[in-house]
């Protein structure tokens, strides 16, 4: 790829895809036919910079239609947006979902990450090699390739089949007359639990593949008493706005208008709500700091790019209760003084995208979004921006760069997002679960909300239980429940197996032993235990799982997902993986192992202390906990390779439930 404008010409189909997203070119300087008038004037300056944020949608448009982005297509996109080709190439090459070399229109992504690896991903990929050839090869017009976590952990092992060639309308959305027609129109198919046969069939014709199971299948507690955030899933049609309102929808927004922006923030502060993405920062303080900034333009960003291996709660909320997120974003925007919200949605979530597009469209039609929300004189609207496969974009400032049409690299702080965020304006960033918690706060009052949980962790929490567990899915428990309660609720490990370890918080989290199940599930409780609650990942691993292989997969994940911006992370993640490879060799000596463990500690400390963002700062956490708590490489485990545990009659240890 030449990094300057070249003579490469887009095909008619590529040009059509870009123009459908950006509109027809206005003059010859941005890709239209050159006229004599164009030689006397040109577009640029503020007008050009104001369109840079359309770069990611334009790249999606080409990739969706053609299946890859050619030199001619990228050249045309850059001309349309007056973006330097070198910058356009840097953005396109940053995201895993974009291809810059020819590939077939049908691609099968097979998850090989932690939850799927524990449920047979290796056997699935071996079978696919027999059917379709090695990974990356093309057979029968289909290419299959391993993928990091697809967020389908409750259906592991999982696969996502994508077919290019379906045009999108001028707003970047697929033209679908009825939501029931959406799977065919979107050209995607989700398979899970997948076999080689079902994955191959879905890849051969994604548009004709069977639909996904209902969202409530991912919620074992669906329809039960005591649920707060999950109470509507399985009880209301996620496509029906009237059904949502019949079960209390938009009660919270009406109360927000009665309280006023400052009153809403006070309720959130009094409720003690903290962020559910892992950092646990007080939400009310973030909103208050954003609202008091003197700039006239403020923004709200919903981080729905959950890419932590083992995390899928936000996906289930968007698929099962999409109007709740629309209402919650409207309340948050009202509180912080924003009139526009961006929903940055993970690119591997086709059904969540369909549901959220539908819900936003219906809310706009019914006056619940737009220039005059509920007749209160408040203008607010939501725009969806699709991610394109970059774990680091879960970092709040990396999201800003991605939306603005740049590489999704984190920014140095300060300034903080509440001061200078999206488009250099004050911005509040919250994830899906955090925002949806605002609804029960306003519906029931701050005091009632804070009465649930503990003093330091109020309310309820969603936990993503996966791995070698009988009933994987999203569970809702009040803060303060024990880890053992959650393990028992999910049925524990399969019959005849013993629990080896639990990974709390995902790849950036920490392992705990089976004799540590009394850990309270609170932010403060897990910190005191030397672990982390993170985003709510609870990955159970039984004695069939090879822990060294799991640690190596974690290291590979961070190596691949590092944006490379800072040396500690860019180099440290590679050195960590290399050391783990050496430790996995059967011929290693005790002295060599001790040296590699010492090197891991040194590299891990450097990443933790000097990396720009949380990716590098937490890349060593799980490996460190496995070494120190599980004794993976030190020979500290009993002869059977397992810490002591309870009797086999207990569900934790594969007995009867």
UniProtKB/TrEMBL annotation:
Q: What SUPFAM superfamilies does the annotation carry?
A: Nqo1 FMN-binding domain-like, Nqo1 middle domain-like, Nqo1C-terminal domain-like, Thioredoxin-like
MF (Gene Ontology):
4 iron, 4 sulfur cluster binding; FMN binding; metal ion binding; NADH dehydrogenase (ubiquinone) activity
Keyword 4Fe-4S part of the UniProt annotation: yes
User: Do you know which InterPro entries this protein is assigned to?
Assistant: NADH-UbQ_OxRdtase_51kDa_CS (IPR001949), Nuo51_FMN-bd (IPR011538), Nuo51_FMN-bd_sf (IPR037225), NuoE_N (IPR041921), Nuop51_4Fe4S-bd (IPR019575), Nuop51_4Fe4S-bd_sf (IPR037207), Soluble_ligand-bd (IPR019554), Thioredoxin-like_sf (IPR036249)
Chain ranges of the NADH-ubiquinone oxidoreductase 51kDa subunit iron-sulphur binding domain: 548-593
Q: Which UniProt keywords apply?
A: 4Fe-4S, Iron, Iron-sulfur, Metal-binding
Q: Does the keyword Glycosyltransferase apply?
A: no
Q: What family classification does the UniProt entry report for this protein?
A: Belongs to the complex I 51 kDa subunit family.
Q: What is this protein called?
A: NAD-dependent formate dehydrogenase flavoprotein subunit
**Species this protein is from:** Actinacidiphila yanglinensis
**What is the taxonomic lineage of the source species?**
Bacteria, Bacillati, Actinomycetota, Actinomycetes, Kitasatosporales
